[in-house]
Amino acid sequence: MTAATFEELAMPLFDQLYNFAHWLTQEHAEAEDLVQETYVKALKGFSSFQPGTNFRAWMYRILRNTFLTSRSGLKVSANVPLDAEDAPELPSAGGTPETIYIERSQQEILQKAIAELPLHFRELLLLCDVEEMSYQEIATALSIPIGTVMSRLARARKALREDLRKRLGG
Fold first, then answer.
1. Low-confidence ranges of the chain (pLDDT < 70)
2. 3-state SS of 96-149?
3. CB of 50 closer than 8 Å to CB of 1
4. Percent helix, strand, coil in the chain (nearest 5)?
5. Running DSSP on this structure, what letter comes out for residue 48?
6. Cα Dmax for the chain
7. How crowded is the C-beta side of 153, counted as CA atoms within 13 Å?
8. pLDDT score recorded for residue 80
9. Angle in degrees, CA 120, 122, 127, rounded to 5
10. Contact assessment for residue 146 and residue 128, using Cβ atoms and an 8 Å cutoff
11. pLDDT digit string (tens) for 82-129?
């Protein structure tokens, strides 16, 4: 298989992989580095990819393993952004300031609740509910049995519901 084939398969996944990396790392620059390292490793190992298998799951597995490897060292260095690219975006037009504030507050509460979940719950929720991967794709990407995917996902959703109830006073 050629580099052109790799590019044809890998480039449509870039935004999805970046979003997943950003959720995992919680930091813009670190997510960019993680995705870049994932693409480098995937290109180097592309000859080992089995045609006919799930390329998307293969890429997610590389990204996840790269992330976990980066966290397994004795000291994880923190990236400090040197520019203002991480500045918050202005809300898009549409709606009153009050509705924009309420929507943004609810989104921040949800994002904070997801971010505080244990990694094994957070990654399942993101892959299933944000990236819309099938249970089989998730099982392949995370190298776990499909039954484990389903049970962890149920526990993750329950933990998220309970956390949101506490946060929202319900």
1. 1, 72-95, 100-101, 170
2. CHHHHHHHHHHHHHHHHHHHCCCHHHHHHHHHHHHCCCCHHHHHHHHCCCHHHH
3. no
4. 70, 0, 30
5. G
6. 55
7. 22
8. 43
9. 100
10. no
11. 444 544 454 444 567 777 667 777 778 888 888 899 989 999 998 998
